[in-house]
Amino acid sequence: MNSEPFKKSHHESFMWLSSWMDDSEKLVAGFTTKNGGVSTSPFSSFNLGLHVNDDAKTVITNREHLAEKLNMPLSNWVCAEQVHGNTIQKVTKTERGKGIYEYADGISGTDGLYTNESDVLLALCYADCVPLYFYAPSHNMIGLAHAGWKGTVKNIGGRMIDCWVNQEQIPVEDIYVTIGPSIEACCYTVDKRVISFVDAIAKDANVYTEVSTGQYALDLKQLNAYLLKNAGVLDKQIIVSSYCTSCQDELFFSHRRDQGKTGRMFSFIGFKED
């Protein structure tokens, strides 16, 4: 759809969402890599997930490293207890610190966060699932969603749009979405059960191909893009990353490639205080 929205920073541990940051001095947004941290195998080395049986002190050291590089204190972060659902929650400064030291202390049962307050960094974990970034610059609103196949077929992206339009009174034409690095169809095969859920919500989306009997290569990025357009987001305001978390072994953790024994990357977005 557009050129790659994520650009490598001079820090090996994360990439900037430069297509948005270039237009805002206050916005901080990006996606982490697996590099530049202190975790050991199989979490080598920049694991940010507290729920994968890595040493918690090591994970917090990695998080502190990222906070320092972003100039966004760890105490200002908001994390969630992600459950592959479609629950969306608006957060404020009151929720800062949720889930930063204990996974279970994150915003409960939630896979989508948004805010219009500065000095709040939204952060969610990934290792193949699709990170969705939302931005309405004229309304000072930002959001994140975690969309694995379950969250995608539950239309978590569309639910975020619905929240912004109907609860926040943001016109849909003012909303921009970036679909971040995730596993792509080249590396993501699912069975008929999963495809039945896809067909139920997007039968005409043309986002999967049968590669063998009962096995289908599924493009979760394009499925999310399809659902976002159905929710009213303008096609020209949806940008899709070309990075595949499974293919790019040198950059990313991948739950499927690494057979479940791996770390987690973060998507993050926030506004710095004036």
Task: Describe the protein.
This protein is of the alpha+beta class. The protein has one domain (6-183, 234-271): CNF1/YfiH-like putative cysteine hydrolases, CATH 3.60.140. The chain is 21% helix and 25% strand. It contains six helices and 15 strands. The chain has helices spanning 18-21, 56-70, 149-153, 156-167, 192-202, 220-230; strands at residues 6-8, 14-17, 27-32, 77-78, 88-90, 112-115, 120-126, 130-136, 141-147, 176-179, 189-191, 208-212, 215-218, 238-240, 265-271. It has a six-stranded mixed beta sheet with strand order 1-2-3-15-7-4. It has a six-stranded mixed beta sheet with strand order 5-6-9-8-10-14. It has a three-stranded antiparallel beta sheet with strand order 11-13-12. The radius of gyration is 17 Å and the shape is globular. The two termini are 33 Å apart.
Strand count: 15
CATH class membership: Alpha Beta
Q: Count helical runs.
A: 6
The CATH topology turns out to be: CNF1/YfiH-like putative cysteine hydrolases
Write the CATH architecture name.
4-Layer Sandwich
The protein's oligomeric status is single chain
Mean residue pLDDT: 96
Give the CATH superfamily.
CNF1/YfiH-like putative cysteine hydrolases
As laid out across the biggest beta sheet, the strand order is 1-2-3-15-7-4
Largest sheet: 6 strands, mixed
Helix content: 10-25%
What is the ordering of alpha helices and beta strands? EEHEHEEEEEEHHEEHEEHEE
